[in-house]
Protein 1
Amino acid sequence: YVKQIKMPAKESYKSMQDSFSSPEFVPSDFAKMDRQPQLLLGFQAIDRFAKNNGALPLPANAEHAAEVLRLAAELNSEHGNLVEALDEKLLTLLASNARGDIS
């Protein structure tokens, strides 16, 4: 009989703050490689919106989408301009669908 023994492996990761200031992306769609930093900023902005307001942005609410865009711009400047210009259409769609339920 053969017995397989799994040897422990030590894993180490960068802190969240270090990862945010210098992210390493694993491309999943080579046609949309520029979207990864945009989505990172968008999800972080939505998270900050939820912390500030106690809830996620409402669907198709222009005020909430504008607030998410403002927060994304703040985050972008705080962390060394991950993107040159924010994709407002993408971030507005992301904010409008933040409460979406995928079933």
Protein 2
Amino acid sequence: AQGQMNPIRKVVTLLQSMQKKVTEEGESEKELFDKFMCYCTNGKGDLEKSIADADAKVPAVGSEITVGEEKLEQAKGDLTGAQTDRAAAKEAMAQATGIREKEAAAF
């Protein structure tokens, strides 16, 4: 008779263990909630600062892009000039070579 547990006692023990488990889960949920709220409170300031810093950088980055585009246009102009000069130099060399060949043939 002692080996068997009273059914009522069994139910009470089961309910007590469930209560203990629910209490522990509640405490862990409360702890997680407190961490989340701390993040929300502190994280808001960090995010606002990050956004403000990014907004402050926007004009500087825009001006850097403008400067880069201007340099690119200048480089394209320089390249066109260099190509023109190169073509003129090749033509002058061809003329000089032609004159030298004529002089060599006449000599």
Protein 3
Amino acid sequence: LRLGPVPAITAGLGLLGRMGKGSKYRDAKVPEMPLQVWSYEASPFCKVVRETLVELELPHLMISCARGSPKRQQLFEEKGLFQVPYLIDPNTGVEMFESAEIVEYLEKTYSL
């Protein structure tokens, strides 16, 4: 697959605003079961959570619920609202919305 220089340049520019977040490894405890994250690519709130998951190398299942996806309705029916990111940690029983709270939880629970 040859995409040319544009994707490489735009991906690099995307790192500038977040000062390289998501591009460096940090030590973490590995959970027994993968985390589940309801998310969609275009959300800046979901991006912050994905960066933390990547930095800590936490195994996770990303449940994509982009516009038009039936997963949106599924989340709404299960939780009574649609809001992402939404984290489910089967290791601790924690389920939560709000990107800042999710990042704080991941740091406190899994970061060494």
Protein 4
Amino acid sequence: TAEISDPAAPHAPPREVHLAKGLLSRCEVSALRSAFDALGSGSAAEAAHARVVVEDGRVVCEELHRLLQPALESRILPYVRQRVDYGGGGGEGVVVADALLRAYREEGQ
């Protein structure tokens, strides 16, 4: 667990970030990496090594969402729902608002 500040909202309280290893299988990671790389070159997304999959609750990259959706529903959302409790009602109201995939690459690649 780590706290991060939002540069877009410097006066907002820090947010908590959790690293949860193992929520995606090696096969899922490989398929997502291949699809990520196949989505084209020269775009701003590729320059940033990132792709938005879901934005404001809407799917914006169908190819990546199709690969990510099973893990979102069966592992990622249940993991998050177990860890939040909004207003005493548990995490059942938690849904995916935004999903972003970022590829970390070695220099020169």
